[in-house]
Amino acid sequence: MNEILQVLKINGFLLLNKPPDISSFFALMRIRKLFLDFLLKNNIKPTKQIKSFFPKLGHAGTLDPFAKGLLIVLIGDATRLTDLFQNYNKEYIAKIKLGLKTDTYDIKGNILGTFKTFFDRSDVENIIKFFVGKISQEIPIYSAVSINGKRLYKYAREGRKIDLPKKEIFIETIDLLDFDKDSQVFTIKVKCSKGTYIRALANDIGVGLGTNATLIELERTKIGDFSIEKSKKLNEISDIFDLKKYILSLEKYFSSFYNEKIEKLITKGETAKKVLNGNFNFLQNEKKYYNAKYKLYSNDKILGIVDIDGSGKVKNNFIFRNNLN
Protein backbone atom coordinates (compact mmCIF):
# COMPACT_ATOMS: atom_id res chain seq x y z
CA MET A 1 0.00 0.00 0.00
CA ASN A 2 2.86 2.42 0.77
CA GLU A 3 4.14 1.96 -2.78
CA ILE A 4 0.69 2.87 -4.10
CA LEU A 5 0.55 6.00 -1.94
CA GLN A 6 4.01 7.04 -3.15
CA VAL A 7 2.76 6.92 -6.75
CA LEU A 8 -0.11 9.23 -5.80
CA LYS A 9 2.32 11.76 -4.34
CA ILE A 10 2.94 14.50 -6.91
CA ASN A 11 4.09 18.10 -6.38
CA GLY A 12 4.62 20.42 -9.29
CA PHE A 13 3.16 22.01 -12.40
CA LEU A 14 1.64 20.69 -15.59
CA LEU A 15 1.58 22.90 -18.67
CA LEU A 16 -1.71 21.82 -20.23
CA ASN A 17 -3.01 22.79 -23.67
CA LYS A 18 -6.71 23.05 -22.92
CA PRO A 19 -8.94 22.30 -25.91
CA PRO A 20 -11.93 24.52 -26.72
CA ASP A 21 -15.44 23.75 -25.46
CA ILE A 22 -14.49 22.42 -22.03
CA SER A 23 -14.19 24.43 -18.84
CA SER A 24 -10.97 24.84 -16.89
CA PHE A 25 -12.65 22.94 -14.04
CA PHE A 26 -13.48 20.01 -16.33
CA ALA A 27 -9.84 19.93 -17.46
CA LEU A 28 -8.80 19.60 -13.80
CA MET A 29 -11.29 16.77 -13.34
CA ARG A 30 -9.72 14.95 -16.28
CA ILE A 31 -6.39 15.12 -14.45
CA ARG A 32 -7.99 13.99 -11.18
CA LYS A 33 -9.50 11.00 -12.99
CA LEU A 34 -5.97 9.71 -13.68
CA PHE A 35 -5.60 9.07 -9.94
CA LEU A 36 -8.92 7.20 -9.76
CA ASP A 37 -8.03 5.13 -12.82
CA PHE A 38 -4.72 4.18 -11.22
CA LEU A 39 -6.47 2.87 -8.10
CA LEU A 40 -9.02 0.88 -10.09
CA LYS A 41 -6.31 -0.60 -12.28
CA ASN A 42 -4.61 -1.85 -9.11
CA ASN A 43 -7.89 -3.23 -7.70
CA ILE A 44 -7.99 -0.66 -4.92
CA LYS A 45 -11.36 0.70 -3.91
CA PRO A 46 -11.24 4.54 -3.94
CA THR A 47 -12.52 5.01 -0.40
CA LYS A 48 -12.69 8.42 1.22
CA GLN A 49 -9.56 7.60 3.21
CA ILE A 50 -7.59 6.57 0.12
CA LYS A 51 -8.73 9.64 -1.84
CA SER A 52 -7.48 11.83 1.01
CA PHE A 53 -3.99 11.01 -0.29
CA PHE A 54 -4.79 12.56 -3.68
CA PRO A 55 -2.85 15.81 -4.15
CA LYS A 56 -4.74 19.08 -4.32
CA LEU A 57 -5.36 20.47 -7.79
CA GLY A 58 -5.67 24.07 -8.92
CA HIS A 59 -4.83 26.28 -11.88
CA ALA A 60 -3.09 29.57 -12.54
CA GLY A 61 -5.97 31.49 -14.11
CA THR A 62 -9.12 30.20 -15.75
CA LEU A 63 -9.87 30.09 -19.46
CA ASP A 64 -13.39 30.58 -20.81
CA PRO A 65 -14.81 27.26 -22.05
CA PHE A 66 -14.79 28.33 -25.71
CA ALA A 67 -11.12 29.40 -25.47
CA LYS A 68 -8.14 27.10 -25.92
CA GLY A 69 -4.52 27.26 -24.92
CA LEU A 70 -2.21 27.27 -21.96
CA LEU A 71 -3.62 26.27 -18.59
CA ILE A 72 -1.07 25.77 -15.81
CA VAL A 73 -2.29 22.99 -13.53
CA LEU A 74 -0.92 23.26 -9.98
CA ILE A 75 -0.58 19.93 -8.19
CA GLY A 76 0.06 19.16 -4.52
CA ASP A 77 2.27 21.69 -2.73
CA ALA A 78 2.41 23.78 -5.91
CA THR A 79 -1.13 24.96 -5.12
CA ARG A 80 0.46 27.08 -2.38
CA LEU A 81 1.74 29.29 -5.21
CA THR A 82 -1.66 29.91 -6.86
CA ASP A 83 -1.70 33.65 -6.13
CA LEU A 84 1.87 34.03 -7.38
CA PHE A 85 1.05 32.32 -10.67
CA GLN A 86 -2.22 34.16 -11.17
CA ASN A 87 -0.37 37.48 -11.00
CA TYR A 88 1.74 36.67 -14.05
CA ASN A 89 1.12 38.59 -17.28
CA LYS A 90 -0.62 36.70 -20.08
CA GLU A 91 -0.35 36.51 -23.86
CA TYR A 92 -3.28 35.75 -26.16
CA ILE A 93 -4.00 35.29 -29.85
CA ALA A 94 -7.49 36.65 -30.57
CA LYS A 95 -9.58 36.51 -33.74
CA ILE A 96 -12.23 39.25 -33.92
CA LYS A 97 -15.17 39.82 -36.26
CA LEU A 98 -16.19 43.40 -37.04
CA GLY A 99 -19.86 44.23 -37.51
CA LEU A 100 -21.13 41.55 -35.14
CA LYS A 101 -22.66 42.17 -31.71
CA THR A 102 -23.41 39.53 -29.07
CA ASP A 103 -24.51 39.86 -25.45
CA THR A 104 -21.34 38.14 -24.16
CA TYR A 105 -18.89 39.89 -26.57
CA ASP A 106 -17.88 36.43 -27.87
CA ILE A 107 -19.24 34.06 -30.51
CA LYS A 108 -20.98 31.86 -27.91
CA GLY A 109 -23.40 34.61 -26.95
CA ASN A 110 -26.77 35.57 -28.36
CA ILE A 111 -26.49 37.65 -31.53
CA LEU A 112 -27.91 41.12 -30.97
CA GLY A 113 -27.10 42.57 -34.37
CA THR A 114 -25.05 42.37 -37.55
CA PHE A 115 -23.78 45.39 -39.45
CA LYS A 116 -22.05 45.97 -42.77
CA THR A 117 -18.53 47.28 -42.28
CA PHE A 118 -15.87 48.35 -44.78
CA PHE A 119 -12.72 48.83 -42.74
CA ASP A 120 -9.23 48.17 -43.97
CA ARG A 121 -6.04 47.07 -42.21
CA SER A 122 -4.88 50.61 -41.44
CA ASP A 123 -8.13 51.37 -39.58
CA VAL A 124 -7.49 48.50 -37.18
CA GLU A 125 -3.78 49.31 -36.86
CA ASN A 126 -4.62 52.87 -35.87
CA ILE A 127 -7.35 52.07 -33.33
CA ILE A 128 -5.50 49.34 -31.41
CA LYS A 129 -2.75 51.82 -30.51
CA PHE A 130 -5.21 53.57 -28.16
CA PHE A 131 -5.56 50.43 -26.03
CA VAL A 132 -1.86 49.99 -25.25
CA GLY A 133 -0.74 50.99 -21.75
CA LYS A 134 -2.72 51.52 -18.58
CA ILE A 135 -6.44 51.63 -19.36
CA SER A 136 -9.77 51.34 -17.57
CA GLN A 137 -11.82 48.36 -18.73
CA GLU A 138 -15.51 47.81 -18.04
CA ILE A 139 -16.13 44.31 -16.75
CA PRO A 140 -18.54 42.37 -19.01
CA ILE A 141 -21.90 41.57 -17.47
CA TYR A 142 -21.38 37.92 -18.40
CA SER A 143 -18.60 37.38 -15.87
CA ALA A 144 -18.16 35.82 -12.43
CA VAL A 145 -17.40 39.13 -10.70
CA SER A 146 -19.73 39.71 -7.73
CA ILE A 147 -21.72 42.88 -7.07
CA ASN A 148 -23.68 43.06 -3.82
CA GLY A 149 -22.93 39.38 -3.25
CA LYS A 150 -24.27 38.27 -6.60
CA ARG A 151 -22.44 37.19 -9.76
CA LEU A 152 -22.82 39.58 -12.69
CA TYR A 153 -23.88 36.81 -15.07
CA LYS A 154 -26.87 36.11 -12.82
CA TYR A 155 -28.06 39.72 -13.26
CA ALA A 156 -27.66 39.25 -17.02
CA ARG A 157 -29.70 36.04 -17.06
CA GLU A 158 -32.44 37.78 -15.11
CA GLY A 159 -32.44 40.65 -17.61
CA ARG A 160 -31.62 43.17 -14.87
CA LYS A 161 -29.74 46.36 -15.59
CA ILE A 162 -26.80 47.15 -13.34
CA ASP A 163 -23.95 49.64 -13.37
CA LEU A 164 -20.95 47.64 -14.48
CA PRO A 165 -17.74 48.14 -12.50
CA LYS A 166 -14.48 49.13 -14.16
CA LYS A 167 -10.98 47.92 -13.40
CA GLU A 168 -7.56 49.21 -14.28
CA ILE A 169 -5.53 46.89 -16.49
CA PHE A 170 -2.25 47.17 -18.37
CA ILE A 171 -1.79 46.11 -21.98
CA GLU A 172 1.89 45.86 -22.85
CA THR A 173 1.50 45.33 -26.60
CA ILE A 174 -1.13 44.64 -29.26
CA ASP A 175 0.16 43.38 -32.60
CA LEU A 176 -2.05 43.01 -35.65
CA LEU A 177 -1.19 39.61 -37.12
CA ASP A 178 -3.77 39.35 -39.89
CA PHE A 179 -6.64 41.28 -41.48
CA ASP A 180 -9.12 39.95 -44.02
CA LYS A 181 -11.01 42.79 -45.70
CA ASP A 182 -13.68 40.56 -47.26
CA SER A 183 -14.75 38.88 -44.02
CA GLN A 184 -13.86 41.89 -41.82
CA VAL A 185 -12.06 39.50 -39.48
CA PHE A 186 -8.69 40.33 -37.93
CA THR A 187 -6.25 38.58 -35.59
CA ILE A 188 -4.23 40.25 -32.84
CA LYS A 189 -1.63 39.15 -30.32
CA VAL A 190 -2.12 40.75 -26.92
CA LYS A 191 0.33 40.86 -24.01
CA CYS A 192 -1.52 42.04 -20.92
CA SER A 193 -1.84 42.05 -17.15
CA LYS A 194 -3.93 39.58 -15.19
CA GLY A 195 -7.66 40.19 -15.17
CA THR A 196 -7.83 41.52 -18.74
CA TYR A 197 -11.02 40.50 -20.54
CA ILE A 198 -10.05 39.93 -24.18
CA ARG A 199 -13.69 39.77 -25.27
CA ALA A 200 -14.26 43.18 -23.66
CA LEU A 201 -11.19 44.44 -25.52
CA ALA A 202 -12.70 43.12 -28.77
CA ASN A 203 -15.93 44.99 -28.08
CA ASP A 204 -14.06 48.18 -27.18
CA ILE A 205 -12.04 48.03 -30.42
CA GLY A 206 -15.31 47.77 -32.33
CA VAL A 207 -16.81 50.71 -30.47
CA GLY A 208 -13.65 52.70 -31.14
CA LEU A 209 -14.18 52.09 -34.87
CA GLY A 210 -17.81 53.20 -34.60
CA THR A 211 -19.32 49.72 -34.90
CA ASN A 212 -19.44 46.49 -32.91
CA ALA A 213 -16.99 43.61 -32.75
CA THR A 214 -17.08 40.10 -31.33
CA LEU A 215 -14.37 37.70 -30.25
CA ILE A 216 -14.70 34.54 -32.36
CA GLU A 217 -11.54 32.63 -31.37
CA LEU A 218 -9.16 32.88 -28.42
CA GLU A 219 -5.95 31.08 -27.56
CA ARG A 220 -3.75 31.75 -24.52
CA THR A 221 -0.14 31.28 -25.57
CA LYS A 222 1.87 32.41 -22.53
CA ILE A 223 1.59 32.82 -18.76
CA GLY A 224 4.64 34.61 -17.42
CA ASP A 225 7.64 32.77 -18.91
CA PHE A 226 5.64 29.59 -19.53
CA SER A 227 4.77 29.00 -23.21
CA ILE A 228 2.19 26.93 -25.05
CA GLU A 229 5.02 25.27 -27.00
CA LYS A 230 6.01 23.30 -23.89
CA SER A 231 2.47 22.20 -23.04
CA LYS A 232 0.79 18.82 -23.36
CA LYS A 233 -2.66 17.96 -24.64
CA LEU A 234 -5.08 15.92 -22.57
CA ASN A 235 -4.91 13.01 -25.03
CA GLU A 236 -1.13 12.85 -24.51
CA ILE A 237 -1.61 12.08 -20.80
CA SER A 238 -3.09 8.61 -20.68
CA ASP A 239 -2.23 7.65 -17.09
CA ILE A 240 -0.64 8.85 -13.87
CA PHE A 241 2.83 7.85 -15.09
CA ASP A 242 2.49 10.12 -18.13
CA LEU A 243 1.48 12.86 -15.72
CA LYS A 244 4.58 12.32 -13.59
CA LYS A 245 6.73 12.37 -16.73
CA TYR A 246 5.44 15.78 -17.82
CA ILE A 247 5.39 17.48 -14.41
CA LEU A 248 7.70 20.44 -13.77
CA SER A 249 9.01 20.08 -10.23
CA LEU A 250 9.05 22.80 -7.61
CA GLU A 251 12.84 22.70 -7.81
CA LYS A 252 12.73 23.30 -11.58
CA TYR A 253 10.41 26.24 -11.10
CA PHE A 254 12.53 27.96 -8.47
CA SER A 255 15.78 27.34 -10.34
CA SER A 256 14.60 28.31 -13.85
CA PHE A 257 11.41 30.40 -13.71
CA TYR A 258 11.24 32.21 -10.36
CA ASN A 259 12.55 35.66 -11.28
CA GLU A 260 13.17 37.11 -7.83
CA LYS A 261 16.84 36.76 -6.91
CA ILE A 262 16.96 35.49 -3.34
CA GLU A 263 19.54 33.58 -1.32
CA LYS A 264 19.45 29.79 -1.12
CA LEU A 265 20.02 28.19 2.30
CA ILE A 266 20.58 24.47 2.92
CA THR A 267 19.02 23.00 6.07
CA LYS A 268 19.67 19.55 7.52
CA GLY A 269 18.21 17.08 10.00
CA GLU A 270 16.10 18.61 12.76
CA THR A 271 16.33 22.09 11.27
CA ALA A 272 14.70 20.86 8.06
CA LYS A 273 11.90 19.23 10.06
CA LYS A 274 11.37 22.47 11.99
CA VAL A 275 11.07 24.42 8.74
CA LEU A 276 8.32 22.06 7.58
CA ASN A 277 6.48 22.83 10.84
CA GLY A 278 6.80 26.58 10.29
CA ASN A 279 9.63 27.08 12.80
CA PHE A 280 12.22 29.59 11.54
CA ASN A 281 14.03 30.28 14.80
CA PHE A 282 17.41 29.49 13.27
CA LEU A 283 16.89 32.57 11.07
CA GLN A 284 15.07 34.76 13.56
CA ASN A 285 17.74 34.28 16.26
CA GLU A 286 20.54 35.76 14.14
CA LYS A 287 20.41 39.35 12.92
CA LYS A 288 22.48 38.57 9.84
CA TYR A 289 19.38 36.89 8.39
CA TYR A 290 17.08 39.89 8.99
CA ASN A 291 15.46 41.95 6.25
CA ALA A 292 15.82 39.33 3.54
CA LYS A 293 14.02 36.50 1.75
CA TYR A 294 15.37 32.94 1.50
CA LYS A 295 14.81 29.73 -0.45
CA LEU A 296 15.16 26.89 2.05
CA TYR A 297 16.36 23.50 0.85
CA SER A 298 17.14 20.09 2.30
CA ASN A 299 19.76 18.64 -0.04
CA ASP A 300 18.19 19.07 -3.51
CA LYS A 301 14.56 19.42 -2.32
CA ILE A 302 13.01 22.82 -1.73
CA LEU A 303 11.18 23.15 1.59
CA GLY A 304 9.83 26.65 1.19
CA ILE A 305 10.29 30.39 0.91
CA VAL A 306 10.49 32.65 3.95
CA ASP A 307 10.66 36.44 4.23
CA ILE A 308 12.22 37.86 7.42
CA ASP A 309 11.70 41.56 8.17
CA GLY A 310 14.14 43.98 9.79
CA SER A 311 13.04 43.07 13.31
CA GLY A 312 13.32 39.30 12.81
CA LYS A 313 9.61 38.63 12.30
CA VAL A 314 8.33 36.38 9.54
CA LYS A 315 6.52 38.53 6.98
CA ASN A 316 5.47 35.76 4.65
CA ASN A 317 6.24 32.15 3.89
CA PHE A 318 5.39 29.25 1.61
CA ILE A 319 6.05 25.82 3.10
CA PHE A 320 5.99 22.70 0.91
CA ARG A 321 5.32 20.06 3.56
CA ASN A 322 4.91 17.14 1.17
CA ASN A 323 8.01 17.79 -0.92
CA LEU A 324 10.71 16.30 1.32
CA ASN A 325 9.96 12.57 1.32
DSSP strand tally: 18
CATH level-4 homologous superfamily of the largest domain: Pseudouridine synthase
CATH architecture of the largest domain: 2-Layer Sandwich
What is the subunit arrangement here?
single chain
Apparent shape: globular
Provide the β-strand percentage band. Answer: 25-35%
> What is the CATH class designation of the largest domain?
Alpha Beta
Q: According to CATH, what is the topology of the largest domain?
A: Pseudouridine synthase
Low-pLDDT stretches: none
* Major beta-sheet overview: 10 strands, mixed
State Rg.
23 Å
C-alpha end-to-end distance: 16 Å
Report the order of strands and helices. HEHHEEHEEEHEEEHEEHEEEHHEHHEEE
Number of continuous helical runs: 11
- The overall average pLDDT, rounded, is 91
Q: Into how many domains do the coordinates divide?
A: 3
Brief account:
The protein has three domains: 2-87 and 226-249, no CATH class; 90-223, 2-Layer Sandwich (Pseudouridine synthase), CATH 3.30.2350; 260-319. Helix content is 26%, strand content 33%. It has helices spanning 2-8, 24-41, 48-51, 82-86, 121-128, 152-157, 198-208, 240-246, 250-256, 269-276, 281-284; strands spanning 12-18, 57-59, 68-75, 90-98, 100-102, 111-114, 133-138, 146-147, 150-151, 166-180, 185-192, 213-223, 226-227, 232-233, 263-266, 292-298, 301-308, 314-319.
